[in-house]
Specification:
- The chain has nine helices and no strands.
- The chain is an all-alpha fold and 274 residues long.
- It has two domains: 88 residues, Helix Hairpins, CATH 1.10.287; 167 residues, no CATH class.
- The longest helix is centred in the N-terminal third of the chain and has 64 residues.
- The two termini are 45 Å apart.
Length: 274
Amino acid sequence: MESLRSRLNVFLVVFFAVIVLGTIGMMTIEKRSLVDSFYFVIVTMATVGYGDVHPITDMGKIFAIFIIVTGVGTFIGVIANLTEIMLAKREMQIRMNKLNMVIGVFFSEVGLELLSKFSRYDPHFDAIRPGLLIGRTWTDKEFLSACKKSAKHGFDVDPSQVDFTALKGFFTAKRDFLPRLLENPVLLEHQSFTSLLRAVFHLAEELSYRVSFNDMPTSDVSHLAGDIKRIYHLLVAEWITYMKYLKNSYPFLFSLAVRTNPFDKEASAVVETP
């Protein structure tokens, strides 16, 4: 997309340069008015060529050839690049919609449960809990504020609160689900979510190599707590972004997501009378 925009910028610079120089040239050589000169350049570059305004002098005809050679190609280039950018944006939007469906499945199957677990391991979670109680009427500004506030949180993990055996069992139960997410090639276009998946896979692998979690050395407990912290931080940021996407694109899905907020102690899928 960036290369397309850069190429379009080049065409636009040349396009406007030809218009300005062409208009000035026609005014100087053919002694035409500003309007007539501008009109001639535009109809020539657009290949319309009405013929009601045309060069009379030999120099004017030569100059008109210059406009045709440089201007027509530039005009076509601008139109072609604009069309290509619009098609590329549409294709990207389709891919992102598919990706957000994958992210939604991830949160339904794994992400929300991990958020619920990890927040219980966080001794300072109550400090950011209010900022994660997303409301139905939240604006983009409020989502941005939630992202900024959560980014400042330490996302500490108290190892004494972690049930490593249960956590390993959770990942074991999702052993078939998680690898299937990688079958979607669109994931490679979402760097933050890909980083989150890598962190999740790493923790699952770390836990799978340990037969028992009894009498673990402090160093190993700290290592696993650090792996949890890495996921915890990425997971919260990705969840806020996904909730914003639902709010702007799928209000009915957003309504359920708000009612089942993993950080809301009174969360319930049941729709209550306001």
